Amino acid sequence: MVVLAGGTSLSGPDIFLSYNREDAARAKQFADALAAEGFGVWWDATLRSGENYDEVTEAALIEARAVVVLWSAKSVVSRWVRAEATEAERAGKLVPAMIEDCKRPIMFELKQSAELSHWKGNRKDFAWLAFVEDLHRHVGKSGDQAEDAPVPNPAATPPKSDWRRLWPSVAILLVVLLGAVIAWTQFGRDTSGAPGSVEIMVLSFTPAGNDPREAAIANGITDELIVRLRHIPELRVVSGVGSGLASVSADHRIDGSVRLNGDEIRLSPRLLDSSGNVLWSDNFERQVDDLFQVQERIASAVASTLSVSLDVGIESRDYGGTSNPEAYANYFKGRVARWTGDPGRFSYLERAVALDPNYIKAWAELAYANGLALYADNSWEEADQYLKRMDQASTKALELNPNLWVGQQARAWYAIATDDFTSADEQIRLADKQDKGIDPDMRLTQALAAFQFGRYHKSAELRQSLATIDPIYGDDPERISDLLSLRQFDAAIAEYDRLMKIKPGGAAGYSPFVFWALLLKGETAKAKEFAIQKKLPPPMQSAPNFRYDPETFPNLPLAELRKWAERKFKSSGRNQLLSSSFFASQMGDQELALSYLRVAFEHKGIGWNQYIWHPALAPLRKTPEFAKWIEERGLAAAWRKSGEWSDYCKPVSETEITCT
């Protein structure tokens, strides 16, 4: 018999909490929050007077379904904590969490630990939600059993920064704001779609504490929200800045408060009716690493939420969206999972289209999810199934409305995945004609498609135009890749350095591009030093004397290389094989470089054609064998039909091309 948090007695707790006594305050925070999530929690603070400590503790440890170990500088040197963690690991029920930066015992370094050193008790924090979801899997409970349970989350803690990887942080806010949407819909709405048919007033967000930065942040969020809502033509947005409640007459009003505590920001948005009744309110917290970005993303999430609620703007049904808030929440979580690798991405998107079978954007996203799954460690049969589902979902997106860019782009990407470049190019052009200049997603997808055809100048222009639609896209680290491919090496390095200062988590993934920029501009020693410092792949660390390796970079004839690649990667491995082609070309072995290219694109994938135009392959592109291979792939046929050629290849006759 053990005693759980809250005083309940039963045999076999859900969770045994292991910690060092000097972390007792933090442990209580965890115990209370886990109990509120619906778990039965045992920790030694619940021991009754007279009970034998060792016996009761050991019984609880054995009977618990999961053991949460709180790693800290104190607990990592505690014999008790280490012993409890060892027993839990042996039993397959260890769920560790980092509550401060420390070096874990070496035997636990390979065990993934939840990063919760920043967590202060907020049960809507993304990392906390992921941790709780992991515990549910261990304990075998449904999240529905939790008291005041949070909305389900994508089960992965997001890397910091990088505009694409910031989706998870925004998603939590968005799911919270969907509560406001649901409340709103209960009070009626005008969805006539006429310009200015829906009135909404944005009142000033107000500072709630004593930090002098709060006023500036509050004003920034208010201004940004007004700007974004005014981009929705169906809304009549009234600024209530400086207005008192007594003077406000709009049907719908938004306000909120801002509080700073060190580097943590808490926002408390509210939705009110014309009488001042609060229809919905909530709190959420974020780390303030970039105030402007925080402001923009909060405003963006609010605007998207209202777009769904009122069926106006780029998330409305007219633009391929939905008016069903629950469908939108699942769609959004599916998009988040695109970047986090959450295996639940398919179930989120399938739920979205089940709730709204006419949800075009959700069908398109389901197609992309299946396409990206081609890069997993699949058999050839599994890869074919993903392609089949990609075909079905993209076809549905197009059939629902052939006059929207969403379905055209989804079909274009399926065509790219199956190497039908002529069809892909035709559909990209149709999507271009349907661009109304208000949806940044449309421009981004078109920029990525231009990449595939070697149209880097066009891709760069499209990417630059994104920021004019939505400033959030102004710091996209993919621009580093653009600049490298345009051989603007100094600019690529400068952009990397700039982004590393403001969003290091996102820019860090572009370190290989900086390596190539340094190497190709002749700074060999710096390139090698950079590769070693950033722990880039071994061939880069040996630059410029790249070396063959029988395990990762073999020098084999084409037939043997095909067999090796199938053993190594099954149906995937396209990106790894492409990297090897860069090394071979730089070593002067253009025959081997082309062999790696051939094998790379015989393996399944939804793109990566952009790396055919990587500057490291410039020596290969000058060979007639490369031009012949491009003809075989069907890219030249697509260029001829459209008349829009790659930046790197041009026709010399009706049947021949030359590349640089």
UniProtKB/TrEMBL annotation:
Membrane-crossing residue ranges in chain numbering: 166-187
SUPFAM superfamilies given in the database record: Toll/Interleukin receptor TIR domain (SSF52200), TPR-like (SSF48452)
Coiled-coil zones: none
Domain TIR: 15-119
Keyword Methyltransferase (UniProt): no
InterPro entries: TIR_dom (IPR000157), Toll_tir_struct_dom_sf (IPR035897), TPR-like_helical_dom_sf (IPR011990)
Name assigned to this protein: TIR domain-containing protein
Alphabetical keyword list: Membrane, Transmembrane, Transmembrane helix
An example Gene Ontology biological process: signal transduction
Keyword Membrane in annotation: yes
